[in-house]
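Please check this:
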Amino acid sequence: MSTILFAGVRRADWPERLSMAVDEHLKEVDFIWGQTDCAVLFSDVVFAITDCDPFEIAGRWSSALGAAKALARTGHRSVKSFCDASFDTISPSMARRGDAGYVGNPEDPLTSPAIVLGAEAISRGLDGWVRFPVSTLTTAYRIG
């Protein structure tokens, strides 16, 4: 059985902090490794909701290779594996605003989960924002 690292509670002001974190990311047009990538979005949202930085142990990165090395410092070979070990897995039908999840099994090990914002989930891809219905999630994680 794995140890859940981020099972803490949500801050009282998490809805406002979630909105601010997402709004800041939505202002950014370009995908930049270590600044405006899917992992930074995920990390910033988790921090906004819980005051815990899930990738603190990973350090910083500025390229795909650097991101892979940072991921290796967590002891995992994929972000999904890291999330499976670090967060409570929930039924996708139970995912609520601020939770996270995947549609299918990501082919790229660096793909971070999308953030649930209501009926829609968003993430960041190399070519821009990715949006899809929460009803299409196949894996979901409780954040806080």
The helical segments are 14-26, 38-50, 64-73, 79-86.
